[in-house]
Amino acid sequence: MHSILLQIIEKKQKDLSKQKRILSIDELKRKVTKAKLTSTFKNRFINVAHSDIAIIAEIKLASPTNSSLGSGSDIIQRAIAYEKAGADAISFITEKHYFKGNTIFISQLKTRVHIPILQKDFVIDPYQIYESKMIGSDAILLIARLVDKDVLKDFVTISQEIGIEPIVEINDEEDLEKALDTNTSFIAVNARDLRTITIDIPKACTLLEKIPDKFIKIGFSGIHSSFEVRRYKEAGAKGVLVGTSLMKAANIDNFIKSLKI
């Protein structure tokens, strides 16, 4: 893994250790009522027109390569603008050290928008999944590279048992084998290599084509225009996630509408 990712994981472990002293996992579980997976997130992809593609519009305030992409003070208005422009779901990165996120923002967003919300973070502990449910996330990202096969399988099961849609992110064929051994409905291919932080859409599309059609496939990263969206769609993606380019877009409405091919 890239050194930045290792640093993120190290900080995440320390954060979790502190958080568990404030609220134990047993207490957290008691706050979370098990619920049947309602698939509000999945429905956005099932119901998308055959000629269209679902857009997951991301809010990220920073990244390891961009120290400032937005402000926490305008996330609500941005989310509302995403919904009005026709986004099918919103992704929000809650990692706080490198992405300036916070789990509290998910709860705030849930009160103002009606489209489902995907929480993106670096999930290494079941605690994070229960917390995700408590704050109101509709879906949670599970990065296959971060955990072994059995742990990933357990994470997917826990998510589904408490009513959150697990989105398994993969980056290579080894990750794909892990994902195929779970009960997830969604597999997302990230064109950004977690080892080098470089983006390779052709490689991602090749991997998308290897995912069995019973899964809902999503393309992550590298989208600047409808050209990249089309490439993902031709490889079998039912949806794409758009992050940095959307955060930098001068006109949110025009940009999102331009991606709906």
What would you note in describing this structure?
There is one protein chain. With 261 residues, the chain is an alpha/beta fold. It has a single domain (3-21, 38-259), classed as Aldolase class I (TIM Barrel), CATH 3.20.20.70. The protein has helices spanning 3-22, 25-31, 40-46, 75-85, 104-110, 126-135, 149-161, 173-180, 201-209, 226-234, 244-248, 252-259, and strands at residues 54-59, 89-93, 117-120, 139-143, 165-170, 186-190, 216-220, 239-242. It has an eight-stranded parallel barrel with strand order 1-2-3-4-5-6-7-8, surrounded by seven helices. α9 (201-209) links the parallel β6 and β7. α4 packs across α12. The termini are far apart. The model has no long low-confidence stretch (mean pLDDT 92).
Unreliable stretches: none
Sheet with most strands: strand arrangement: 1-2-3-4-5-6-7-8
Shape field: globular
Q: Whole-number radius of gyration?
A: 17 Å
The profile of the biggest β sheet is: 8 strands, parallel, barrel
Q: How many separate helices?
A: 12
* SSE-based structural type: alpha/beta
Q: Which topology does CATH recognise?
A: TIM Barrel
Q: Report how far apart the termini are.
A: 34 Å
User: What is the total tally of β strands?
Assistant: 8
Strand content: 15-25%
